[in-house]
Fold this protein.
Amino acid sequence: MKILLIGNGAREHCIAWKISQSPLCSELIVAPGNLGTEEIAENVEISIDDTKKLHEFAISSEFDLVIIGPEAPIEAGLSNLLIDSGIKVFGPTKEAGMLETSKSFAKTLMKKNNIPTAKFEVFTDITDAKNYLDQIEFPLVIKADGLASGKGVVICKDRQQSLNTIEMIMKDKKFGDAGKSIVIEEFLIGQEISVFSFTDGENFSSLVAACDYKKLFDSNLAPNTGGMGAFSPPKSIHWDHNLQKIISESIISPVIQALNEEGNPYKGILYAGLILTKEGPKVLEFNCRFGDPETQVLLPRLETDLLEIILSINAGNLNEIKVEWNDSYSLAVVLASAGYPNVFQTGYEISGFDDLDQNINIFHSGTKRVQGKFVTNGGRVLTLSTISNDLASASSLIYRNIDKVNFEGAYYRHDIGK
Ligand code: AMP
Ligand code: GLY
């Protein structure tokens, strides 16, 4: 197959790494890609936001399959355009993708279908939202309805912080139109996990899970980031058959069924962010894509050919193949620029790629080449990932290697998987 992969993060480098190993892949092109994908595929300079150009390129270059990494092209309806043009696509339609792109859509769907989630209300009026604060307990969570690059969620410990947050989103429009409406919800307590399942709109694969470290500092101290590291399977919880059955039956199956019944079947990978509360697993959010950095720990564990899975999703017969994950422990740590997720400098030379142990994978995100040298070019710069028989050895392998890769201000968490 001739395949077009869309995206430029470490997630897409990892997807490219995985599918380039498949005998079904004859040609792989990445738009726009990064320095990592450049080594295993061909990059083409088209932005993930240029829906029209991506669509035209997919048609004119006669791709057999388009794999969409990030959520923005889903929201822009790229899958719909490709399906209408008869091109196979991995990534749900705009309508099914609203599970991620509109939090109020997702919450309302969950409420209607008794899918366990934090209690909530949706507001489009700023005064109503402020008045609601008189009726509820703190802490609470305020979320911009639309996409906000993972920054549209604020945990508010008291009334004043809640008022400030409502003003920041609805009056000052910090997240633009994404904050036209907001969700105010109950703060959930428990272990957080990211759970994934492939689905063809009706059938879904057995679940796989990872723990993502969202906070910037060791011991989970704020601020929130896109993710500083991850490991899989989630060792600190009982990720056993019973828990997987509960999540499948109370969350994954009903949400897939609900979208199907609405005439918007969800095809792709469904990512559920959950909190394991005392009353059982509850949904924080759904995403319509692979996670980053979760992908960098999940795909090294995937035994089944990812392209075979994607073809089954397109054919609607995912029930006919078995999606298998190996029993190894996979762990990844993100190397970020000093100052991320706020203000940071770029352009620092990166050294040490050649000194890494063989079983370390390095996935690029914020890097570029200047005069033949690798330099930093983003907040999350690189992900180091490895796989081992147990979590402790995966962790020590990464931490033995991570200081070898260096650039000015390189920052990482020291406690991933510990
Ligand atoms: P989201 O983008 O909705 O996943 O929110 C980002 C992060 O905020 C999550 O990964 C959680 O760590 C935290 N969070 C979101 N909603 C809640 C909630 N209702 N209770 C506790 N923590 C939450
Ligand atoms: N790691 C969180 C995400 O990809 O949304």
